[in-house]
């Protein structure tokens, strides 16, 4: 179950980081 949460949250966190880096 934890793996599923990670797989679902990882892309979200990465996108947030990319957005912050771009700005």
UniProtKB/TrEMBL annotation:
Superkingdom of the source species: Bacteria
Protein name per the record: Acid phosphatase
Organism lineage: Bacteria, Pseudomonadati, Pseudomonadota, Gammaproteobacteria, Enterobacterales
